[in-house]
Structure formats: structure tokens, C-alpha cells
Amino acid sequence: MFDHEALIKLHRARANLIANIILLLFSLVLARLWYLQVYKGKQLLNYSLQNRLRREEIEAPRGMFFDRNGSLIVNNVPRFDAAVIPQYLQNKKETIRKLAEILEMPEDAVYKAMAKKSNIASYKSVVVKKNISRKEVAIIETQNDELPGVAVEMVVSREYVDREVGAHLLGYISEISSSQLPRYRSRDNFDYKLGDFIGQSGLEQQLDRIIRGQNGYEFVEVDAMGRRKIRVKSEDDFFKEIKSKPAIPGPNVMLTIDRDMQLSAFNALQGREGAAVAVDVNTGEILTMVSVPSFDPSSFSKGLSNNYWGVLSNDPRRPLRDRVIQEHYSPGSTFKPLVAVAALEEGEAEEKGEIGCTGQFPMGRKVFHCWKKHGHGSVDIYRSIRESCDTFYYRLGKRMDINTIAHYVKSMGLGHKTGIALPREVAGLMPDREWKKKRNGEDWMLGETLSCVIGQSYVLATPLQLALAYAVIANGGKLYRPYVVKRIFTNSGKTIKTFSPELLSKVNLSPRTVQIVQEALRQVVNDPKGTAYYYGHGRGIALAGKTGTAQVIKMSAEKLFAKCEETEYKYRHHGLFIGYAPYDDPKIAVAAIVEHGCHGASAATPVVVDIVATYLKKFYPELHQKYLQEEKSKGILFRAVPTIDSSKLQEEDEDTVLLEDEDAGHGGSSSTSQNLIDGVLGNKKLTPTLPVPGINSSVREEDDDQQNENGGD
Amino acid sequence: MVESNLPSKYAYALRRYDFSFFGTMIVIFIIGILNLYSATHATNDKALLDLYKTQAIWFCISIVVGVSISFIRPKTFFRYSYVVYGINVILLVLVLLIGVKVLGAKRWLDLGVLRLQPSEMMKISIVLVLARWYSKFNPEVDVGLKEMIIPGILALVPAVLVIVEPDLGTGLVLLLIFFIITFYRRLKWKTIILLVILGIATSGVMYKFGLKEYQRQRVITFLDPWGDAQGYGYNAIQSEIAIGSGQLFGKGFKKSSQASLSYLPENHTDFVFSIFNEEHGLFGSLVLITMYVVLIMRFIWLATSVVNFYDAVVSIGLMSIFFWHTFINMSMVTGLLPIVGIPLPLMSYGGSSLLTFGICCGIATSISNSRNLF
Questions:
Q1: In a domain? residue B131
Q2: Of A178, A385, A406, A492, which has the most beta carbons under 10 Å away?
Q3: Cα gap A219→A655, rounded to integer Å
Q4: Taking Cα atoms as reference points, which of A334, A549, A328 lies closest to residue A429?
């Protein structure tokens, strides 16, 4: 083929050239070695002998959070940690004994902390106790000479001004875990290090990269004991060109939240389990977002106790979960106005049309019950909302296709994520035929529509979704993306980014539909027969809204009509109230849920009333006065402390009824909302968690553990 | 007849066996393992204390594998060049798909018993495949841009796969190997100038858009070691202090203060040369560099004395693997190049890198022996 010898000969010149270049390059390396070892040798030897130059990281303070009026809600405060530097520790035993004495902690704990970090370089400090008191700092500093290798380190820690209030929204920060480290490194393309604090939930997580700022560093010289020395700069200083880099603090964040409304929502909910959210109906700005039970985010960044997270995550009340966006509930009767909108738009219901409610609605072999055992009598659309008549909606459900209802409900924001920029939002669920078919291969059944129209069965929504849907009713058909960040700005006040309302979709609702439903919702609170009149009137807030009760478990008819307060706590119904105010010029929509609160009116309405009252008093005091005067002139006065008269409650509040127990075997929906929550929230497959129709499922325990996907990692 | 012939045949083979590659390799390794022991003996970390033992075991494995390979005829390498290359590329793709992620980089394939690092083997595969292409495709014509297209693709595909792992250092080494082989294959000077201009332009673009934050940081660190934010500058400075403090004759075996006080991180992998310099000074490294140069020159000499052109190109390619690792590592610890994480052959800790160099020597020995053995 080829003459190999000739070829090799041809290429010999290149081989020689390569050899020469290589020799040249290695000479370069030798020259560099000569420069370092001979020319600079003495100097560098000196440095190696007293190599005490340390590069110390300066942590950049995270951006602070302000509420919409500029009042500080998340701040940075200094904190002091006691640390030892193993390399400089002299007569270890004695020093550690002294240190443990000062810190009032067992010696074992000090050794334990050191053993934990034994694999890191010995010149690096090991924190033995976080957040020590000023007094302890003073003692350690003054006894410096007797404590070689002991140091006090200052760290910037995060202070949440209102502690538990709105903790879910604000989130918390903690050290990046070793399992997060590789994941986040590739996700963010950022060189995280163990020990870095990162946002683990809420806004702290969402805005982490933005508000973190840039760490700086400085070079400090330390003496043989590891203590800082003042560096003397001289001519022959090898480090004379050394530069420190100041930390750049993270930009601050102004939220759309109002601190006073947060506080009143939190106070109204305190001691219960539930959530409240208020959204500006014309912008989508979130004014209040509170979930209880809560936690103290400061404790995480202070590092007070390692098992704080453990305690929280094992709490059956699930305090780490943000019930506003991470939990979804059966909306119960608060769903009815949405169905009414669909029916009015489709011409299936008219303003004048009346039906008779006998308390029972036969469907095939089953009987659906109205919450009012003996019926409402003649019911029109106003009364169906005002007094929450189930039968009216059973009738609509029979006439309308579930897909039609789903279309309207989804366009009002249910059944899909709202798109709020916060982590771990759940989508809720608005079922339709395709969904059911896909889920377990079965066809949709009419009975299921009847359960859905009263907000039970498969229908699930987060409080935020419900607030948005009511905002759509209040503003005449505009669905906004909810948002919590108004503005991001630097310490010097320069605005980096301003956020403005984003219209997601415009629902085509006829003005007549809006008018009818708005009037009905007004009557709920302002008509003496309305379900929320007792708790919502006379406060000068012009509230409109709807109460709702969501069953936690399936119950027999007999149990359903029993008094909720007498059942075991965990089986009690959830109480909901969704509304907006003022009814003649809607400004905010508010949703509140009180878990196991039994009744929407008594449990959730006062929460909404408090939030709206705070809002009007603060932002529209003259409007508030006007409404107060109006109600006064009509003789409507709010009784400051309503006495709870359970017989009256039974009448004023409503319950929704699914099926009678004996009928459950004949198909139809028999799933409980709790099961669905499991299915949708957990990563489990949906099918196995749902009870098979035909088998009468007994009372189910809540399966809490499966749902706990929040925080910590 | 045959039986009586055997002993003498083996004796003949043994007499003609080229020990020069493995011989040099063993000498450098002995220096390396003593240095490794010295660099890690002072630590209180148990895992580090036993490193030199692991290294010795890996070296034995590498010698066994290398010697076994030296008995394969060069013709066989030639025949399977494409197959080996093809399998290796598939493995690289698999790494990206199902590889094990360690500290943000997917570089390993988990085979249950052991972890495979296909990017290491790719260094050899790329040499074989390029040698086959260049020795078969118009070997008497000088290489211009047109002739570079196919081999260019052969080199770029694995290089890109490795860079996205991400392992920028190894990816660049693959491209540098390609460059030396092509240069040997009489790359036109005109084309070289063009490539240099193109390279400068693309590196600018790469720096802006192609590099990850930490990689960019390393480049910044190199240009301004006192002003970095990630701590790499600290390494560079400490490395220079270690080297400089060794002066002419060094502080002596096991006397490195930089290493024992942990000022120098990763002193058992990328920074072994700094420790060696601290302990043995300029004269020590003069000896060590001479050893490396001898080994490298032995490869080049082999390329000029073989009978088959394919063998010549392979020799140059294997030489370039040794050369680039040695040169880049020494340059980065002395501050001539940015710190990219390239190990020093036979000195740095690491099993798969030892294995690579063992195989290199095995192939070279096979080529050398083939001149008179087979």
C-alpha cells in the first residue's frame, strides 16, 4: 500500500520539532521553579515557616423583607458562636474543660462536636455552641490567653420580626444538607459549600439566589494560637498585593403583604388549624397569607436546636405546611356560586326560576339530602346561595354536564396551579370525564356530578384558588396571577425590579350573571336569612361571600345530622368562608378555612371579617365610616361578643350531605376528600388510594405521614 | 520438535522484550509513592493515611494490565481501533444518561463491582482511532483544513461529551492530544495560524457563555490569584509558597510543613508536585523532570524507529498523553496555568489514571517489541 519507511522519514522532521518544543516547555517549567525556589526562595521559606495567613470568608447579609408599607418584617441580626480551632488547641483537656464550664455545657458535647468535624482541616474552626450570650462572649474574650484555640465567631442570622406570623410565606433558611449539595450545585450552576445557609421554604427559598448577595473575603494573619493579628504591610511583603473583597449584601424585597392584616389574620386563627389569604381583586396582589399552626423561622437560622425541624415535621398538625397553597380542601358550599355562574351563563338557571326543596333529592336508587333535613321550600337562585340549598344544585347538576361545569370552574382558577411564585404549590382538582377515565378507566356517573356541584367528592381547591375565583366574580371576570413580591431594591434604595399585575385570562361573563351572583353573595352576609349574617353583619365592612362546610370523612346520614361539636375532633367538618368586600366596589377577596371548625359561619367568617375590617380601617377609613353609618341608620348593630347558641347555629349554618350510608354500595362517589388529598399530594399513584366504588369504606384515619413533603429535605 | 523449541523461544522473547517503558514508569512511580506517603502521613484522617497502599495496589494492577497488553500485536490495535473508539463513545453517552453523579459531575459508570471512568480510556481510544485514520487516509499529503474534518469530528465528539459531564480538563486534554497527532501528521503552518486565531476567538466566546461559574472563577483566579472568591487563589498561593520554600535542596523527606499543616488542599492529587518540590527542592525536581523527559523522548524515538506508520502515529499519541498531563500539572501548580485538575502521571493519587498510563506503556512496548519479536 504505502511505503511506510518513506512515510516515517517524511514525518521525522515533525517528530524532532515536537521533541524540541517539549524540551523548551519543560525548560520553562524549570525556569519558573528556579524563580520560585531560588529567586524568591528565601522569602517563600519565611512565609511557609510562619504561614499564618488565613483567608476568611465574609458572609454577605441576605436581603431584608419589608411589607407593602415599608415596615421591616425580616431582618439580619448578629449572632455569636463559640468555636475551637483544633490546630491551635493546647493542653486540650484543660482548655475544653474550661470552655465547657463557661458555656455551661457538658464536656462530652464539645468532644462530640469536634469528632463530627474531624475530617476537615485542623486549621478550620469547629463550632461547639451556637448563639451564645453576650456574657459568654465577654468571658471568652477576656480569658483569651488561657483558652488557646478557642474563638468567638460572629455570624449574621435572620430575624423574623413577627416570628410565627406568616412563617410559611416567608420561609426559613438552614444549612444546605449533604443530599441537597450536589443537586443544587447542578441546578443553580453555583458552587455551594457545606455550611452555606440556603432558603428552604417559602420566599426564602423562592428568592434565594436573588437575595443571597455575594460573599466577600479578607486575608487575616493569625498568630501561633490562631488569634487574629494586625497585618503589617511592608515593602518585601509577599502578600502586599493582597486584596480583600467586601461582601455585597443581597437586595431587599418589598412584599405586597400588609403586616397589620397579617397580624389580625394570625390572631383570628390562633389556636386553631387553618389558613387565611387576602388578594387584591384588581391586581392579584396578596395582602395576607397566613397558615396556622405555624413555626418560628428564626429558630432555624439561629441553629438553636437540631431537632426543631424533627419536632415540627413529626407534629400531626403539620405546622410546616402552608395551608394556603400546599393543602387543598373540599370547597363544600363555597363552590356553589361557581356552579351558579356556570348555570347562569349556560342558561340552565334563571334569575326568576324557582324549585321546591323537600330536603331530599332522589336520583335513581339513591337519595341525595339537603343539609336542611326538611327542606327549604321554594328556592330561587338568590336563596340557593343565601341559604345554601343543596337541592337547587342537585337539580342543576342533573341538567348540566360535568365538563361544562369544569370548563367554567377551571377558567376561574380552580383545578390548576395559580402560578404564584412560591415553592410547592398544589394544583387542587376539578374533575371531568376525561380525568375520571384516565384515572381509573371508568365512565363518569351522574351521581358524581351531584356530589361535585356542592363542592364535595373529587373537587379540591386551595384557599388561594378559592379567593381568586371569588375575585373573578368580584371584578367581573378577570383572573390575575397572584403575587407577593412588589419590588426588589438595593440598600441604597435603587429599584432593581418592580412587579406589576399579570392578567392570566379574561373569563367572558355576562354582566347580568355577575350581578346576580354578586347580589346573592351580598345577601349571604347582609340579609337576616343569610348563612353568614350572624357573624358578618354590622361591622361596617360591606362584606359579601359564602360559607361552606367540608366533610372530613364520609358519614352516615344519621351522623351527618348529629351535632358536629359532639363528634371527635378529628372527624369534625372544616369550616370555610370565602368573600370579598366592599360589595358595591370590590377591592379585596378573602378566603379563610378553619380545619375541624364545624361551621363555615361560626369558625371562618369571623376570620375574614377581622381581615377585611383591618384592611378598610387602614386603607379606606372614610369608606369604613360610611358603611358603619349606613348600617347604623338601618339599625343593624354588631353584637361584639356573639354568644354561641348551638340551637341557633344549627339553623344558621349549613351542612352538605353526600349519600346515605346504605346507598353507598350502589356506585356513585364514596371517596373522601382526605383520600384524594393523599392521592394528589403524594407521589403515589392515584388509583390504589381511592376506595373502589361498590365497597363501602369505613371511616378512614387520616394518612398524615404520606403528605408531609414539606421542608427540611 | 516444537516442544524443544519452546524454552529457547521464550528466552529469545525475554531478551528482546523492551523494558525501557515499564522500567522508567516504575522508577517514577517509586518516587511518586514515597512522595504520596510523605504528603499524607501527617494527617489525622484515616482515609488519607492508607492512600499510598491503595495506590500501590492500583499500580500492580496497572503493571499487570500493561504487560498483558504488551503481548498483543500492534496489528490487533489497528484492526480494532474503530470498535474500541465506538464502544468508548457509547460509554461516554451512557455516563451522561445513567452515570453516577459525584459532586455535581457525572463521570462514572457504576458496574456494581467497580466504577468505570470512560473519559480516562477515551484518551487512548482517541489515539488509536486518529492513528488509524491518519495512517490510511492519504498519509503522504500534508494536512489542511479539509483533511482535518473527519479526524476533527472523531476528536470533538468525545471531547464535547466529556466537557458536558462536566470535566473541562479531560476534554481539553483530548483536544490537545488531537492537536499533537495532527501536528505530527504534517499539519500545514498556514492552517496552524488559522486555527490559533480561531481558537482565541472561540475561547473568548466560550469563556462568556460556555463555562460554568466555578470554571470561570478558576480562570479569573489564574489571572488574579489574590482576588478570587472561591478559594482557588488560596490554593495557588499556598502551592507557590510550598514550592518556593523548598529552595535548592528541599526540606527533606516527610518535612513538608505546607502539607502536614493542611495549608495545601488536595495535596495527594493535583498538588503532589508542590510537596515534592518543598521536600526535594530544585535539584529534586530537576531529577524528576528528567525522568519524565526520558520517558517522553523514548516515545518520540519509538515513533521514528518503527516499521509501520500506524505504529508511529500511535507512539506520538501516547507520548502526548504523558506530555500534556505532566506539563499541565506542573504548570498549574507553579502558577504558569490555571488550576484545572489534571493529575501528574504516576505521582498523583488515582487508580484510573494509573491504569491509563499502564496501558499506554503496554501499547508502546508492544509496538517496540513488534519490530523484532513477532
A1: yes
A2: A385
A3: 69
A4: A328
Residue A523: all three cell numbers together: 345577601
Name residues whose C-beta falls within 8 Å of residue B136's C-beta, 6 or more positions apart in sequence: B310
CA angle A197, A200, A202 (to 5 degrees): 130
**Residue B128 sits in which domain range?**
78-211
Distance CA A472, CA B69 (A): 76
A466-513 pLDDT, tens digit per residue, is: 999 999 999 999 999 999 999 999 988 889 899 999 999 998 899 999
Complex ipTM, two decimals? Answer: 0.91
Residue from A1, A20, A26, A242 whose CB has the most chain B CBs within 10 Å, to mutate = A26
By DSSP bridging, strand A197-199 and strand B115-116 are unpaired
- CA-CA distance, A556 to A560, in Å (whole number)? 6
- Measured between alpha carbons, how far is residue A426 from residues A172, A460, B219 in Å? 20, 10, 43
Q: CA-CA distance, B304 to B315, in Å (whole number)? A: 9
The verdict on a CB contact (< 8 Å) between A123 and B263 is yes
For residue A242, the chain B residues in CB contact (below 8 A) are 226
pLDDT number for residue A645: 42
Q: Is residue B177 part of a domain?
A: yes
Task: Fill in the amino acid letter for A307.
Answer: N
First to last CA, chain B: 20
Residues of A in contact with B262 (CB under 8 A): 121-123
Q: What is the DSSP string of B168-219?
A: HHHHHHHHHHHHHHHHHTTB-HHHHHHHHHHHHHHHHHIIIIIS-HHHHHHH
Residue with grid cell 397569607, as numbered in its chain: A289
Q: Least CB-CB distance to B242: which of A12, A48, A186?
A: A48
Say whether pTM exceeds 0.80: no
A634: left (phi over 0), alpha (psi -120 to 50) or beta: alpha
pLDDT in tens, B297-346: 999 999 999 988 999 999 999 999 999 999 999 998 898 888 777 899 99
| End-to-end CA separation in angstroms for chain A | 66
Angle B20-40/B272-305 helices, nearest 10 degrees?
A: 170
Q: Which residues of A touch B275 (CB under 8 A)?
A: none
Helix (H, G, I), strand (E, B) or coil at A516: helix
Class of domain A259-705: alpha beta
Superfamily of domain A54-227+242-255: Penicillin-binding protein 2a (Domain 2) (3.90.1310.10)
Strand, helix or coil at A529? coil
Establish if A682 touches chain B: CB-CB under 8 angstroms. no
B302 lies in some domain: no
- Give the CA radius of gyration of chain A: 33
Query: Is residue B117, in this structure, part of any structural domain at all?
Result: yes
The β-bridge relationship of strands A65-66 and A252-255 is parallel
At A146, phi and psi to the nearest 5?
Answer: -85, -5
- The nearest alpha carbon in chain A to B233 belongs to A55
Buried b (16+ CB within 10 A) or exposed e, B94-127: ebeeebeeeebbbbbbeeeeeebbbbbbbbbbbb
Number of domains in chain B: 1
Distances (CA, A) of A704 to A272, A274, A316, A681, A699: 17, 16, 7, 11, 15
Chain A contacts in chain B segment 9-28 (CB below 8 A):
none
Measured between alpha carbons, how far is A7 from A14 in angstroms, rounded to an integer?
12
Query: Rg for chain B (alpha carbons), in Å?
Result: 21
On the CB side of A207, CA atoms within 13 Å amount to 29
**A29 close to B (CB below 8 A):** yes
Q: Do B229 and A186 touch (CB under 8 A)?
A: no
Residues 346-375 of chain A whose Cβ lies under 8 A from any Cβ of chain B: none
Residue A275: strand, helix, or coil: strand
